[in-house]
Amino acid sequence: MSTPAARTVDTTRHPSWRRRRLDPDHSLGLRLTLAATAAFLVLVPFALLALLVLGAWAPLHRLDTAITDALHGHAVDHPAWVTLMQVWSAVFAPMPLRVVALLVVIWLLRRQARRLALWVTTTMVVGGLMGPLLKLLVGRDRPELLDPVARAAGYSFPSGHALNATLAAGVLLLVFLPYVGSWAARVTLWVAALLLTVVTGLSRVALGVHFASDVLGGWLLGVAVVAATTAAFTSWRAHTGLRPVRPARDGVAPEVERHPDAT
């Protein structure tokens, strides 16, 4: 018969699943727990939106149609507006943004910031793969307009432009925040990241190739991916003894700016 002391020893020797998930000494479990929690909190509204799209919820369909019709009417009457939106949509399309991310990865590798380069790569690749997969799963058709000002192939939900703009903006913001010192510079960087994300998404609705809910879905999914990978990366930092950071203020690896070989 086991004694209470023996049972205590056994409990210590074999900690519960919950303890292992939250124990800093079990770094992988802790990183996965934080990443899953961060992703879950943002994926909840995305999942709800996807279910409404799949179920063809009438109020959402009416709202999408009203926004599309209003913006399409404005586009038909203003060719210069269409040209501006087409240029913006082309410059900040998924492929050019991926090229920019690749250049950032190469730059980080040259600075010996291998783990930070891996974070950038993981964020862009995971998000980039999830978008097309979800498009196939949802299978939503694009808006059908009598006099379209632009065309796009493939399914509609979520918007790939909105998703990749969110991923790229998050990556660039969190990598380069440590390089701006003043409050004004930080605000400028945040505004630039928000403009990249918001205007790129809105350009797709303005051109009539996406519904507003497609763009909202792309934004939510992009934020979820960035939140999950950032949680995993900051958890690794804590485990290796680096000082805690607030990513929204300090970036994900502020030590790289001062010591290139720190990560």
UniProtKB/TrEMBL annotation:
<keyword id="KW-1133">Transmembrane helix</keyword>
<feature type="domain" description="Phosphatidic acid phosphatase type 2/haloperoxidase">
    <location>
        <begin position="116"/>
        <end position="230"/>
    </location>
</feature>
<keyword id="KW-0812">Transmembrane</keyword>
<dbReference type="Pfam" id="PF01569">
    <property type="entry name" value="PAP2"/>
</dbReference>
<dbReference type="InterPro" id="IPR036938">
    <property type="entry name" value="PAP2/HPO_sf"/>
</dbReference>
<feature type="transmembrane region" description="Helical">
    <location>
        <begin position="116"/>
        <end position="138"/>
    </location>
</feature>
<feature type="transmembrane region" description="Helical">
    <location>
        <begin position="219"/>
        <end position="236"/>
    </location>
</feature>
<keyword id="KW-0472">Membrane</keyword>
<dbReference type="InterPro" id="IPR000326">
    <property type="entry name" value="PAP2/HPO"/>
</dbReference>
<protein>
    <submittedName>
        <fullName>Putative phosphoesterase, PA-phosphatase related protein</fullName>
    </submittedName>
</protein>
<feature type="transmembrane region" description="Helical">
    <location>
        <begin position="187"/>
        <end position="207"/>
    </location>
</feature>
<feature type="transmembrane region" description="Helical">
    <location>
        <begin position="87"/>
        <end position="109"/>
    </location>
</feature>
<feature type="transmembrane region" description="Helical">
    <location>
        <begin position="28"/>
        <end position="54"/>
    </location>
</feature>
<feature type="transmembrane region" description="Helical">
    <location>
        <begin position="158"/>
        <end position="180"/>
    </location>
</feature>
